[in-house]
């Protein structure tokens, strides 16, 4: 049967379609393949060992069902599937088929009775059964517990497939919980190959050899389900009448939908290029060297995915801009982690919110997780036992554990304006790959910052005395320089005159830089950073 994608190509695609991705010769994302293989092996092992009830957490019912059908065929067991809308039917029965419909088993109690009465070895897949495991459904819970005890001596297994975990206390000892991994890059490669073959049967296709381009779009799809990936591939072909590495933005847009549905993280549209960051050559050089860290070539070379970076420094000197620029440079989605949103009114829900946010970030990885002003988020966490029953401390502990142990390609960018409220545990090596100190821009960096903001507003920097502007803006942050340019533009717009160097210097003279009132704090910050942090402005420091 042809996919919906191939069908759409008949109406929206030209007679000649260019798909620029051949199959890569080298192995793809071996770790992802191993996860799926391990999941399959674990499920088969549990079925062979007569575990009565297996609870698989996944939103991809079809992938899980196909895997269990393959295990059933291998182990010579019939496989049945159940939904509350159709009842218990042989696995793979189409929704249009009336021959196998079993309306009498739509009720969960009737379905469980059917399992008990069934004699032959079999595997029963119960879809979205979690809705019947709430405390008010004590009859269903009790019946399932009895089944768990009954099936231990039978060649029958119950598999619950659900996107959420809902295990009542009564069933904790009877149920084995597994989390089914999302598709690997190899799964997406197979999907793309199938789509290509199906379209090729309809219209001639020119396939250009572009291994890196194919890998980029397959890697961008990581974190999507197979259905979501097919949707986005269909959207790209219908919209652009092609499928190539230039369409990464459409794949990232699909990931944006996942973030919006969750509500715990904020998807940040990237409107800042790496060239918009003035100065900070040491930090930029460090980031450029790690821009290929998520590729298959880097993994085969033995390089791990980078963990993250902590940017410590003066306010307004480009720390937040760097987080956005990294997303643009690496072409991965940027997620803003608002810790304040994590704290809910109910005790225990804050920690759960953090765990859920982390799961979402990992599900769409590779991604950048931006934690802005982390020092303010965890200020006073040591005394949280008296102020908020220890909620802040537990949230902080959850985050620290994840930072140390995470293996998924989620690059964390944390920013902080001071060290007074930063817990020592956060600064320990292993939480982040590197700690950078972002100081006030030097005179040369101020030249570059002025040039960036003048070009951004349609002015040629060569027409201005950049050296005079750099001297007049001593101790100004990058944000203050930008505001000085904007203020000067407002002044000349009111007079209908042309922007000149004198207008900018006048605007600078009207501004009292923050560094003047925070001199002691900045001095203390510099002294602390000396020997403890890399200087973001210097290459090789």
Describe this structure in words.
The longest helix has 19 residues, at 30-48. This protein is an alpha/beta fold and 541 residues long. Helix 1 packs parallel to helix 8 (226-240), helix 2 (30-48) packs across helix 3 and helix 19 crosses helix 20. Strands 9-11-12-13-10-14-15 form a seven-stranded mixed sheet. It is built from 24 helices and 15 strands. Mean pLDDT is 79; it is low at 6-34. The chain has four domains: 4-28 and 193-262, no CATH class; 30-179, P-loop containing nucleotide triphosphate hydrolases (Rossmann fold, 3-Layer(aba) Sandwich), CATH 3.40.50.300; 274-278 and 303-418 and 429-435, 3-Layer(aba) Sandwich (Rossmann fold), CATH 3.40.50; 443-474 and 478-512, Helicase, Ruva Protein, domain 3. The protein is elongated, with a radius of gyration of 29 Å.
């Amino acid at each position: 049967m042809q996919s919906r994608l191939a069908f759409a190509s008949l109406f929206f695609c030209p007679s000649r379609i260019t798909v620029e991705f051949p199959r890569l010769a080298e192995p793809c994302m071996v770790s992802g393949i191993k996860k799926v293989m391990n999941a399959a092996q674990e499920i088969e092992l549990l079925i062979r060992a007569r575990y009565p009830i297996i609870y698989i957490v996944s939103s991809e019912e079809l992938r899980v069902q196909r895997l269990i059908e393959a295990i059933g065929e291998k182990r010579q067991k019939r496989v049945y599937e159940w939904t509350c809308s159709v009842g218990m039917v042989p696995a793979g029965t189409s929704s249009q088929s009336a021959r196998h419909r079993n309306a009498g088993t739509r009720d969960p109690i009737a379905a469980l009775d059917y399992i008990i009465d069934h004699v032959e070895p079999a595997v029963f897949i119960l879809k979205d059964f979690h809705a019947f495991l709430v405390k008010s459904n004590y009859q269903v819970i009790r019946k399932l517990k009895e089944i768990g005890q009954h099936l231990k001596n039978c060649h029958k297994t119950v598999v619950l497939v659900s996107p959420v975990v809902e295990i009542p206390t009564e069933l904790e000892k009877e149920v084995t919980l597994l989390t089914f991994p999302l598709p690997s890059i190899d799964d997406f490669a197979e999907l793309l190959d199938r789509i290509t073959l199906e379209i090729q049967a309809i219209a001639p296709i020119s396939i250009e050899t572009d291994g890196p381009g194919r890998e980029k779009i397959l890697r961008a799809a990581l974190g999507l389900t197979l259905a979501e990936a097919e949707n986005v591939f269909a959207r790209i072909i219908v919209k652009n009448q092609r499928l190539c590495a230039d369409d990464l933005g459409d794949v990232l847009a699909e990931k944006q939908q996942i973030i919006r549905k969750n509500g715990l993280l904020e998807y940040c549209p990237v409107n800042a290029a790496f060239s918009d960051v003035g100065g900070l050559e040491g930090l930029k050089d460090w980031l450029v060297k790690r821009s290929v860290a998520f590729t298959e070539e880097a993994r085969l070379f033995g390089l791990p995915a980078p963990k993250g970076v902590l940017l410590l420094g003066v306010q307004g000197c480009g720390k937040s801009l760097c987080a956005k620029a990294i997303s643009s440079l690496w072409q991965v989605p940027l997620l803003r982690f608002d810790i304040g949103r994590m704290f809910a009114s109910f005790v225990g829900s804050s920690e759960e919110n953090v765990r859920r946010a982390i799961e979402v970030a990992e599900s769409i990885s590779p991604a950048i997780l931006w934690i802005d002003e982390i020092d303010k988020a965890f200020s006073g966490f040591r005394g949280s036992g008296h102020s908020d029953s220890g909620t802040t401390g537990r949230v902080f502990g959850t985050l620290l554990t994840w930072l140390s142990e995470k293996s998924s390609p989620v690059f964390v960018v944390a920013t902080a304006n001071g060290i007074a409220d930063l817990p020592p545990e956060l600064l320990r090596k292993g939480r982040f790959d590197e700690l950078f100190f972002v100081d006030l821009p030097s005179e040369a960096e101020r030249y570059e910052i002025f040039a960036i903001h003048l070009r951004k507003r349609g002015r040629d920097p060569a027409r201005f005395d950049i050296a005079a502007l750099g001297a007049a803006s001593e101790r100004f942050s990058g944000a203050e320089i930008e505001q000085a340019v904007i203020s000067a533009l407002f002044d000349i717009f009111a007079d209908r005159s042309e922007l000149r160097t004198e207008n900018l210097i006048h605007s600078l003279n009207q501004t009292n830089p923050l560094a003047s009132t925070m001199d002691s704090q900045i001095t203390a910050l510099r002294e602390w950073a000396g020997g403890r942090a890399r200087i973001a402005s210097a290459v090789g420091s």
